[in-house]
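Key idea: predict the complex, not the pieces.
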Amino acid sequence: MTVKELANNINAKILAGNNGVENEVTCGYCGDLLSWVMGRAKESSAWVTVMGNVNAVAVAVLADISCIVLAENSALDEDAKIKADEHDIPILRTDIPQYELCVAIEKLLK
Amino acid sequence: MSESVKLSFPVLADDFSHAGEASGSLKRTLKKLGIDMEVIRRVSIAVYEGEINMVIHADGGVIDAEISAESIEVWLRDKGPGIKDVELAMQEGYSTARDHIRALGFGAGMGLPNIKKYTDEMSIETEIGVGTTVYLKVNIT
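Result:
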């Protein structure tokens, strides 16, 4: 599934990183502690989090994460948006709570 | 690659908005050299963790990398306060990061353990009040 297809399926808005929407998503990861995510998220993950800062984007870039999915309408910092555009990391946002969002994504990936 | 490639990146203190640029630059260079993607990912994660440590705990520092046909070696040198108890610092979940750092999503106590996890060799030289050098090596198989 591509990031674009994921966004359509969960009714998420794409806030940044439009050039990366054809990235393939093969699995998911959920968490807000950056090093925890770095250590455990697999490549090509859709990363569900409430952490919309510039450091989250750096983590996504370095760990080959396909997209960041901001749950519960969490905030995206302006400098994070700029960095995501620069590095083609799509950032999706939805109002769905974190747990339910993970369940929804898991169903789509199966 | 007949000769090794040497790179050097400065890391600034307390600059969270630019943290990740050194590891990002290294990652781009490794991609250009055609290194295996999984090797690149391991190096990138390990170096980013080290870079973040330099921003959080030390007054920045310098990252030197040497890329050869066999391996990627990286030295992360800082002139920070040094690590009091290396064994403790290597334990998952142990962190001395303050609250404002944790609010950014850091301070999980996974930095050094992640470096160990993603590298083939790792060592730490540290002296209180003088600084710390983290060495890491990832083999290119």
